[in-house]
Amino acid sequence: MKRRHFALVAALLVAIPSLSLAAPAAAKPDLASEIRETTLGNGMKVIVWPDRDIPNVAMYIWYRVGSRNERPGITGLSHFFEHMMFNGAKKYGPGEFDRVMEANGGANNAYTSTDVTVYQNWFPKNAMELIFDLEADRIQSLAFDDKIVDSERGVVYSERRLRVDNSNQGLLNEQVQAAAYVAHPYQIPVIGWPSDIEAWSKSDLQNYFRTYYAPNNATMIVVGDVTADDVFALAKKYIEPIPAQAPPEPVRTVEPEQQGERRVTFTKDAQVPLVQIAYHVGTADDPERESLDLLEAILTRGDSSRLHQRLVEQEQIALGVGAFDDPRGFDPGLLWIAMTLSSGADPAKAERILDEELAKITNEGPTEAELRKAKNIQVADFWRNLKTISGKAQALGSNETFQGDWHRLFTAPERYEAVTAEQIKQAAAKVFRTTNRTVGVLMPAAAAPASKEPAR
Amino acid sequence: MNRNRILAVVAAMAIAIPAAAQTASMKLPPYEKVKLGNGMQLILMEKRDVPMIAFHARIAGGAITDPTGKEGTADLAADLLQKGAGSRDALQFSAATDSVGASFGTASAREALVVSGEFLSRDHKLMLELLADALRRPRFEPAELDKLRKRMIDGIAAARENQPDAVIDNYFDAFLFGSHPYGRSATETSLAAVTRDDVTKWYRDNAGADRTILVFVGDFDGKALAKDVKKAFGDWQKAAAPMPKLEAPAMQKGRRVLLVDKPDATQTYFRIGNVGIARKDPDNVAVDLVNTAFGGRFTSMLNSELRIRTGLTYGARCYVLRDTVPGSVAMSSFTKTESTVQAVDLALATLERLHKGAIDEATLSSVKAYVAGQYPPRLETGNQLAAKLAEIEAFNLGRSDVDDYGAKLNAVTGDGAKSVIERVYPKESDLSFVFIGNATAIRDAAKKYGEVTERKITDAGWK
Questions:
Q1: End-to-end alpha-carbon separation of chain A, Å?
Q2: Who among B265, B336, B369 is closest to A103 (CB)?
Q3: Which of A223, B172, B395, B444 fits as disulfide partner to A392, beta carbons 3.0 to 4.6 Å?
């Protein structure tokens, strides 16, 4: 279902905020020249990128709140709150936000991650003032109805069953992330623990609304068939009167250095073993990010990548292998390597082969051809992300939020182009340490791995 | 939560909407069609917002041409196209696309084999070389076939365990269409039966210039690209076999149930439906409109009932699959095991309401505005436009498929919608049900919907 994803899916979108403009032949000089920004009196920044390819508009509102702002008892509340943002305010009552928007040609969605909650509206340009009215209403005066809270609880629990409880990959992912952090709230699953999903109260939601849903805790991105002046005028009319709030308390806890490898192993009645390994890395704007992005591309992007070649094609021990970053946010996050193994394959052997490959790139670094390939992939990704007004809104918003400045979207080229093979080697050495990782293994209950291993 | 609230909202909405008045119409940008001497159809559309070229090759055939008992032959052939072609082996081929940041994908759909992707425009020569190699000179190396086959078989097992919602359509198609080609898809056993000779013969029979539509959309010079394409494809031979004729599948009479037991499931996934319409149905746009109102958008009737009003599920929808002959029309959702009956009954009651005229004038104008407003983003990128142009050509729809879409949408009346509902959406008495869930908990309940056939999710195959 497309509506209101939580972060497992959304992380993939959030995970590619740094993009490259490196291709000299491909660069279009004035790409950013029409982008304008303003900051409203209440502290909300509004950024506009006019793009007249289609007569539509993408509006993304980024609130700086996610599961990192939660604690035991209210885990999953950020995501639940995201659902409640569609369930009625003062002017537009329950159900009206969606009904009125759709009746005027608009559609919406939202997602919650560990760090942010992002509300997305896509609409024909002539609906823009109405969309501002709808947004202003819910930002200013959201309503909380007990019956709706209970009904929406069922929706979120169903979402949890879909993504976690009935998916071995989802289950393992949740367990590994929880084990990877002993102190920092990144250990909390975005969807929330079942007991908390059952127990949230209306007052929890009201507190959350007051604390985090303030205009000064959000950034608005508007991309599409608009002028900056029109958008700014509507933002002043509808959003600026909403008062600022005291800024939320910062997240103080810093995850201590990991002291030894952690392992999560469980068995299930399954045929397909899974291995997921999470390594601690830095924040989204860590200076080593570009090196890590390139390292991940070399390891897992495309069938010619190192891990695909070794694990899937040569050893045939895995059906697939991927790398991703989650969380990739304000606080130090995780770099994951996830393998779906061939049926009956031995997870311990898959781990050994993976370790060999990681040791190899740590000791020898990438080849020049691999480095060039990884940089070219970044260039192509840059353009891919700018094909749509939604892609542009996502790219601007994530750079503004996580890099501190949307201009970073366009200055990324030097950052990627400047990375050397030696830097990638160093980044690998820093991250791929046994004591820096949490290993998760889902083992088929009835498997006798050694005998069922596929022929080489 | 009660009906009054929803009714009140509908009334409020009727005032708030200028509705259909604002449906902007969208026109396809200009494009060029060139027919090669060997029958290949080339289509070119220049588009320069990003320095990329999207391509989409559609070769008529696909899964419906799989030999009986060897379902999955087309899937294997499609995936093998880039596992060694021309002068490159599998690794060299993937290195060639990866190293320039290109995407290059192959897939077998129900009625076509599709090769699509995009390159930075500076790499257009490489793009054409790889495309011609993949389509004309695939190696079908035995070792690659063996690897791929094993991975596909394991992939089915992984999907059975991790994504009931990804395998339920295989069960539903097999249950609904039976021995009709639409009911067949790759299984563990049929994949195991496919030999290299099967793959090469299938490809010779079903791939060739006369079956192929090749579309490029993006940042290129049309004249120069057309010339290069002629050079690369002008002497490609035709497919050895004629395209098989497809009969329309029979509507299912009565009710019956397939229950797929997944003992560890905590929720039940379901599909409920029957045979619907073909792509060229004259009411195609009216069906888009009705289906959006019934089960397409967030506030659709199904999602309003099963999610918004009752919280039974994260999502409920209805889809109408349209190809050469009528495909399926089916309601789709999932709910926790204990509320299976409640959710299924509510879906059935909602279908009944649809038949009894639930789409009133306010809903009609709202859904017109919605479909029109959300139409332009469907044709925003080179890849989207290329796929649309291939579809237009394959079904011989003409550019009016896009250019007149808005006008056709606006022309749908309440009576028109009613007759479409009557004709396209199944009666309550004629429904096929597929449930994936914990059979011990829902076996008895399932009986009330019709005669139950039961199987285990771990059993090979889909029927």
A1: 40
A2: B369
A3: A223
SS (H, E, C) chain B: CCHHHHHHHHHHHHHHCCHHHHCCCCCCCCCEEEECCCCCEEEEEECCCCCEEEEEEEEECHHHHCCCCCCCHHHHHHHHCCCCECCECHHHHHHHHHCCCCEEEEEECCCEEEEEEEEEHHHHHHHHHHHHHHHHCECCCHHHHHHHHHHHHHHHHHHHHHCHHHHHHHHHHHHHHCCCHHHCCCCHHHHHHCCHHHHHHHHHHHCCHHHEEEEEEECCCHHHHHHHHHHHHCCCCCCCCCCCCCCCCCCCCCEEEEEEECCCCCEEEEEEEEECCCCCCCCHHHHHHHHHHHHHCCCCHHHHHHHHHCCCCCCEEEEEEECCCEEEEEEEEEEEHHHHHHHHHHHHHHHHHHHCCCCCHHHHHHHHHHHHHCCHHHHCCHHHHHHHHHHHHHCCCCCHHHHCHHHHHHHCCHHHHHHHHHHHCCCCCCEEEEEEECHHHHHHHHHCCCEEEEEECCCCCCC
ipTM: 0.90
Contact A154 B312 (CB under 8 A): yes
CA distance A229 to chain B (A): 23
As a dihedral over the C-alpha atoms of residue B44, residue B45, residue B47, residue B51, rounded to 10 degrees, the angle is: -20
Q: Does B105 contact chain A (CB < 8 Å)? A: no
Q: Are strands B103-108 and A5-6 parallel, antiparallel or unpaired?
A: unpaired
How far is B120 from A291, CA to CA, in rounded Å? 23
Contacts of A124 in chain B (CB under 8 A): 22, 24, 372-373, 376
Cα–Cα distances in angstroms (integers) from residue A147 to residues B98, B309, B361, in the given order: 52, 10, 30
Across the interface, whether the CB atoms of A304 and B98 are under 8 A apart is answered yes
Q: How far apart are CA B24 and CA B385, in angstroms?
A: 18
- DSSP label at residue A165: I
Out of B150, B299, B311, the one facing A151 most closely (by C-beta) is B311
Q: Is A263 helix (H, G, I), strand (E, B) or coil?
A: strand
Residues of A designated catalytic: 82
Residues of B with Cβ-Cβ distance to A56 under 8 angstroms: 373, 376-377
Q: What is the pLDDT of residues A230-285, one digit of tens each?
A: 999 999 999 999 999 999 999 999 999 999 999 999 998 888 999 999 999 999 99
Element of type H or E holding A272: none
Tell me the shortest Cα–Cα distance from A39 to chain B, in angstroms.
29
Distance CA A296, CA A325 (A): 9
Show residues of chain B in contact with A26, CB under 8 Å.
51, 120-122
Q: Which A residues 202-261 touch B at CB under 8 Å? A: none
Task: Give the count of beta carbons closer than 10 Å to the beta carbon of residue A167.
Answer: 19
Cβ within 8 Å of residue B79, ≥6 positions away: B106, B107, B148, B152
Q: How far is A436 from chain B (nearest CA, A)?
A: 28
Interface of B with A in 38-57 (CB under 8 A): 49-52
Segment holding A227, helix H or strand E: none
Residue A218, helix vs strand vs coil: strand
Who among B101, B161, B312 is closest to A381 (CB)?
Answer: B101
**In order along chain B (463 residues), what is the average pLDDT of each group of 10 residues?**
28 34 72 97 95 97 95 98 98 96 95 97 97 98 96 92 91 97 96 98 98 98 97 97 95 97 95 98 97 97 96 95 98 97 98 96 97 96 98 97 96 97 96 98 97 96 93
A133 part of contact set with chain B, CB < 8 Å? no
Instruction: For residue A266, list chain B residues with Cβ-Cβ distance below 8 A.
Output: none
